[in-house]
Design goal:
The structure holds two protein chains of two kinds. Chain A is of the alpha/beta class. Chain A folds into two domains: about 10-165, HAD superfamily/HAD-like (Rossmann fold, 3-Layer(aba) Sandwich); about 175-350, Aminopeptidase (3-Layer(aba) Sandwich), CATH 3.40.630.30. In chain A, about 35% of the residues lie in helices and about 20% in strands. The longest helix of chain A has 22 residues, at about 145-165. Helices cover about 55% and strands about 0% of the residues of chain B. Chain B is built from four helices and no strands. The chains are: A alpha/beta, B mainly alpha. The interface between A and B is medium-sized, with 35 and 26 residues.
């Protein structure tokens, strides 16, 4: 098995992936095909790559997608079971090894489940899929440097996933074994486009749920009252670059008001999920706030069913909200005392000069 | 649907082993902390676990427990689920 094996079949999700909406939400007039992905679908089908569907929908949804895209699907799995099992059946039906299959889904958890159960499958977001036609895995003939790098990134992830599945110990043992390197530092002007992009693209691991413009970020960088910290992630499989950030500000020290450091935004790319990056960022935030004399760290967090992973990380770092204290804007303020034991920064995390 | 906490805890152990990919966790004691040292549940494994719980028991823990304190241990998680099954 090689990780940059040529893809022979793409398994697509339907809702909010091939369709620009949810099929069952308007059964009398289902949503149109997503114009970008429908184009990708047609292009890749034209190169002889098989197309298949795996969707939590009734079978009619597959017929509908066929009619609006004009593409014939080699297999269609519609139902409410696990997508990993559905992909397994498609692989058996088409007699393909897992490393010849790519899976595209807008839902991070579906992607995570498939990646965990079938580490050889190339798992992609719809945004990835939009550029996949230029990757070597999908087009051995045409390859730009950028496309090669992006394709490599996913091949790296697939190798990491396969190694993690084969590894028997704890997550931390695995992260140490593969040489995980986390670097936390102060944001620089050159980071602004990426920070803006992260604020737009992250949802599951985003506390604020609102994009931050480059102009706003520039203002934060220039203001002495705010700190913008970045987190970069790499390991022996590859370098993911800037994957997360936190904005922090103090309430201004002075008795008798307790000195609280508040983080209006904490965000992390889903690429970093399961690699200890958000836990490390939160541990560092506790340390950094305590180091400037704060007695409490506060993270206002939008409470939705989408960013449950962020709330789990806050809980794991010991932050709690007043029960029932969700404000009309949908936010609750999660806080923790900075007295006593703080969450521990893993020994593979490196802090560049205090941000 | 069974409402026996021991039975639910045994099923949760199985789910935990599956979502973390660590088969040895089927033996984790009911009071071992899920966050931190003991099990080291992270946000990915935790979210997958909550999702499996919603599928199996129809209980949306994240929607009903703002602070996710029910995830303290398998024992507290099983009690939370049994309580919701009983009152639902």
């Amino acid at each position: 098995m090689t990780s940059d094996a040529v893809i022979k079949c793409i398994v697509w999700d339907i809702d909010n992936t091939l369709l620009s909406g949810v099929y069952l939400e308007s059964p009398e007039q289902p949503p149109a095909a997503d114009p970008v992905l429908a184009g990708v679908l047609t292009e890749l089908a034209g190169r002889g790559i098989l197309q298949a569907l795996a969707s939590r929908n009734p079978p009619e949804a597959a017929d509908y997608v066929r009619s609006v895209t004009g593409v014939q699907f080699a297999a269609a799995e519609c139902g409410w079971g696990s997508k990993a099992a559905a992909i397994g059946r498609i692989a058996a039906e088409l007699d393909l090894p897992a490393d010849a299959i790519a899976f595209v889904d807008d839902d991070m958890l579906e992607r995570a489940e498939v990646a965990a159960a079938l580490p050889d499958v190339l798992v992609l977001t719809p945004e990835d899929a939009a550029e996949a036609p230029s990757w070597p895995q999908f087009s051995p003939a045409v390859v730009t440097a950028e496309a090669r790098r992006r394709g490599e990134l996913y091949a790296e992830r697939r190798r990491r996933q396969a190694a993690a599945s084969a590894f028997g110990g704890s997550r931390d043992d695995f992260l140490r074994l593969v040489g995980t390197r986390i670097t936390i530092g102060r944001a620089r002007p050159a980071d602004l486009p990426r920070l803006h992009e992260l604020s737009v693209r992250t949802h599951q691991l985003n506390s604020a749920g609102e994009p931050v413009t480059e102009a706003e970020l520039t203002g934060l960088l220039e203001s002495a009252a705010n700190q913008v910290a970045t987190l970069r992630l790499a390991d022996d499989f590859g370098d993911d670059g800037l994957v997360g950030a936190a904005i922090m500000k103090g309430n201004g020290a002075g008795e008798p008001v307790p000195f609280v450091v508040t983080a209006p935004l904490v965000m992390m790319s889903c690429r970093a999920l399961g690699r200890g990056a958000l836990d490390a960022l939160l541990a560092w935030m506790c340390e950094a706030a305590a180091a400037v004399g704060a007695t409490e760290l506060a993270v206002p967090c939008l409470v939705t069913d989408r960013n449950v992973p962020m709330r789990l990380a806050l809980a794991a770092a010991g932050l709690r909200a007043e029960p029932g204290a969700v404000a009309p804007d949908g936010r609750a303020i999660f806080t923790r005392s900075l007295a006593g034991d703080l969450p521990v920064l893993p020994d593979w995390a490196r802090v560049e000069a205090t941000p | 649907m069974t409402g026996d906490p021991d039975h639910v805890a045994a099923e949760l152990r199985q789910l935990l082993a599956e979502v973390t990919g660590r088969p040895e966790l089927v033996d984790v004691p009911p009071r071992t902390p899920l966050f931190g040292g003991g099990v080291g549940l992270d946000s990915l494994a935790g979210t997958l676990l909550l999702r499996q719980i919603q599928r199996r028991y129809g209980v949306d823990v994240a929607a009903e427990d703002l602070n996710l304190d029910s995830l303290q241990s398998l024992e507290t998680l099983a009690a939370f689920i049994v309580d919701r099954l009983g009152s639902g």
